[in-house]
Amino acid sequence: MAESAGGRSMSAVLIAGGRVIDPSRNTDDLADVYVVDGRIEAVGRNIAVAEGVRRVDVAGKVVAPGLIDVHVHLREPGQEHMETIATGAMAAVAGGFTGICAMPNTDPVIDNQAAVGFVVRQAIRAGKARVYPIGCVSLGQNGQHLAEFGEMVAAGAVAVSDDGKPVVSSQLMRTALEYARIFGIPVADHCEDPTLSHCGVMHEGLVATRLGLKGIPSAAEEIMVARDIILAELTGGHVHLCHMSTKGSVELIRRAKERHLNVTAEATPHHFSMTHERCEGYDTNAKMNPPLREAADREAIRHGLRDGTIDCIATDHAPHHYDTKQREFDEAPNGIVGLETALGVGIRELVEPGLVTLPDLIARMSTIPARVFHLEGGTLAVGAPADVVVIDPGRRWTVRANDLHSKSANSPYLGETLTGQADLTVVAGRIVFDRGVAKPDA
Amino acid sequence: MTAAPLGKDLVGLEELSASQITLILDTAEAFKEVSERPIKKVPALRGKTIVNLFFEASTRTRISFEFAEKRLSADTVNVATQSSSVSKGETLVDTARNLEAMRIDMVVIRHPASGAARFLGERIRSNVINAGDGKHEHPTQALLDLLTLRDRFGRIEGLKVAICGDVLHSRVARSNIWGLLKLGAHVVVCGPPTLLPKGLEALGVTVMHRIDEAMQWADAINVLRLQLERMESGFVPSLREYNRIFGVTRERLARAKRDLVIMHPGPINRGVEIDSDVADGSQSLILPQVTNGVAVRMAVLYLLAGGAPEWRNQPADDR
Predict the structure, then answer these.
(1) H-helix or E-strand containing A425?
(2) Of A204, A213, A323, the CB nearest to B114
């Protein structure tokens, strides 16, 4: 940054005149946010600042704690042709995210302290979003031996997960939940009974029948959700259920929460906005795991997000190279990019229909995921790290492959018009993304 | 020639209208006679180049297409996976681009992945004909089944047709369901619940689980092949038990309607889904199906090439 305040290297910025929504303090007011030395210095009306302090006028826009995504795949190390930590972190800040949790199913997998340290270092070098590594549950993600949770946490891991693969062994899952309690970290599980989902490529139902594609029944997810809830009760450990996709899962979680079990859950924008009909025409950008399900499932996810049964929104950002998606549906890999479309899909699908208020959407994309994974951020409280996003909540914009910052463009939203977009993203007081609102001071 | 009445590709019967299906059947009816001539050739596709691209083993369908092409005077090339660059790791999209670069007119594709024919059709200008894609569709098989039924009963509308066996893995079943429903037949699918896909009733078919019930209801049954690997992957416990519970046997035939006809897309597993005396018996239409296969494929090739239904008015080599 070129600016300096008081001769020090860190900057001061006044984000002035926006609608400041801070779910952590339950506030929603017109106010200025004053950032000094990477922290929130003050939030209030007409904050007086010294001459020369950079001022960004954001009247008409929303100022919120930076968004946090607890489930992304950054592909580095090993698959840098799809994404790198730097490009993923850039896509994050362009989507309004100031913190992202990187899943460990890279090549090699992140199952030891050195690998965790690599992710941390690459993220620092990139200097965009904060990247929090998630370590493997099992060594080599083989589902056999517990990885060294303690060493990984000491190196910066914030959770453990074998995501991409379910933890099939109930014994291993039990052990992981028990052992993770020492470190206060969640065990994030990809819920799938692989014997039921075997070779499935989309949701089992009428569309799969018509297309002649092998289906994955909802039961494949729900059986593991039920198991994980039972094991959370047995162990007292914190299980975080990844990318919930079915009505049955939402109901299981609702019952678990009524009993105050240590269970949290996330849902993706695609699961609350799309259904299996999207696979018509064998569109490989609609292929993901868990698959897009039926309208009743989508509605259940939406209502789960409304009433808090589903704690937070996570993208499951999964970049894939163009070549691999230009394949027969059976052969194409699972997953879509999501960091740059999540906010626009959330506003279009949840806020515009009146299902969720904008402050509640921000809570589910920032304050709550921070709380669930025990991360800094998700708040504009004085003294907190200055991770801030400025959103134009009403802007209608069309998703174009060339506009995405991710290295991959495997998105089913290409060509769709979304509502709301991040205009300015600030991490630790530094402007790391600007869609043109913080023009250099005249 | 007029604009192609079927569009560019034939991917499945789901996309066709009843009148398009009827047009194919009527055109096939006219082409039947070519195969009965001493010189089995008309010049309808002279100068057209066709590639038969078979990524899966096939005898009947491949030979049937090849005869249809040759009897229409097209120049044909057969590509099988064993001898192609696919075994060197070439992707389908690259195969498509290379075919395109060779300026071929039509591609007949058989592929193990559902959607492969459509995938190819969306990427090349040539006409693409689906000769079976995964578990999706096998439209020319259903068309020849429809032609065989129409030959026998004089109509499709109102006919009661049961599709029996492994519907879950069957592209023949899916194409037959679409074709029969569009032409107004009543359709039952019958098989063990482990071999029936989800949501079939929503398409407008009735599901039965007892073969006796289906055979006694039907005017015609189409018996699907039970592939050996289905038993190996646990969908049914044994071939012996399958034959006992779902086999089309003479005893069951004796309890069915007297004029029930038996069809099978082949190749048949004698003694598994159908007993030899039924397959070879007087109520079997299995060989007429094969004969009709050539005429139906001639009709499809001709119509996709932009041929007008009144092909007979063209001068013929041997007239």
Answers:
(1) strand A417-427
(2) A213
- Please enumerate in sequence order all residues whose Cβ is within 8 A of that of B90, keeping only pairs 6 or more positions apart, or say none: B84
3-state secondary structure (DSSP) of residue B173: helix
Both structure tokens of B217: 């209801």
Distances in whole angstroms, Cα of residue A19 to Cα of each of A63, A116, A191, B1: 6, 38, 39, 67
Place of tokens 């001769």: A7
- The whole-number pLDDT of residue B100 equals 85
Residue A136 binned pLDDT confidence (cut-offs 50, 70, 90): very high
Would you say residue B308 has pLDDT above 90?
Answer: no
Per residue in A192-213, pLDDT tens? 999 999 999 999 999 999 999 9
Place B93 in a pLDDT band, splitting at 50, 70 and 90: confident
| Average pLDDT score over residue span B303-308 | 84
Do the Cβ atoms of B91 and A323 come within 8 Å?
A: yes
Return the residue matching tokens 């899966």. Answer: B56
For position A440, what pLDDT does the model report? 59
The alpha carbon of residue A222 is apart from the nearest alpha carbon of chain B, in Å, by 18
Residue with tokens 């020849």: B144
Task: Place B84 in a pLDDT band, splitting at 50, 70 and 90.
Answer: low
pLDDT score of A9 more than 50: no
CA distance A90 to A77: 17
Cβ atoms A49, A14 nearer than 8 A: yes
Nearest neighbour of A209 by CB, restricted to B113, B137, B199: B199
For chain A, domain boundaries: 66-372
Among B195, B110, B223, residue whose Cα is nearest residue A209: B195
> Which residues are CB-contacts of B202 (< 8 A; sequence separation ≥ 6)?
A206
Residue A364 per-residue DSSP state:
I
CA distance B9 to B17: 14
Give the B window 230-269 contacts with A, CB below 8 Å.
Answer: none
Residues A282, B200: C-beta atoms closer than 8 Å: no
pLDDT of residue A371: 98
Distance CA B81, CA B87 (A): 7
Q: Which residues contact B213 (CB under 8 A, 6 or more apart)?
A: B190
- The maximal CA–CA distance of chain B, rounded, in angstroms, is 58
Tell me the pLDDT band of A6, cut-offs 50, 70 and 90: very low
Give the pLDDT confidence of A392-406 residue by residue, as tens digits: 999 999 999 999 999
> Token pair for residue A22?
């801070």
- Look up the CATH number of domain A66-372: 3.20.20.140
Helix (H, G, I), strand (E, B) or coil at A183: helix
Nearest CA in chain A to B137: A212
Report DSSP state, residue B39. Answer: S
Tell me if A271 sits within 8 A of A243, measured CB to CB: yes
Burial of B124 (0-12, 13-18, 19+ CB in 10 A): buried
How far are the Cα atoms of A87, A315, A392 from residue A81, in angstroms, in the given order? 11, 20, 32
ipTM of this predicted complex? 0.90
Dihedral, A351, A353, A354, A358 alpha carbons, nearest 10: 10
Task: Please list, in sequence order, all residues whose beta carbon lies within 8 angstroms of the beta carbon of residue A284, skipping any fewer than 6 positions away.
Answer: A325, A326, A327, A329, A332, A410
User: What does the pLDDT read at residue B89?
Assistant: 66
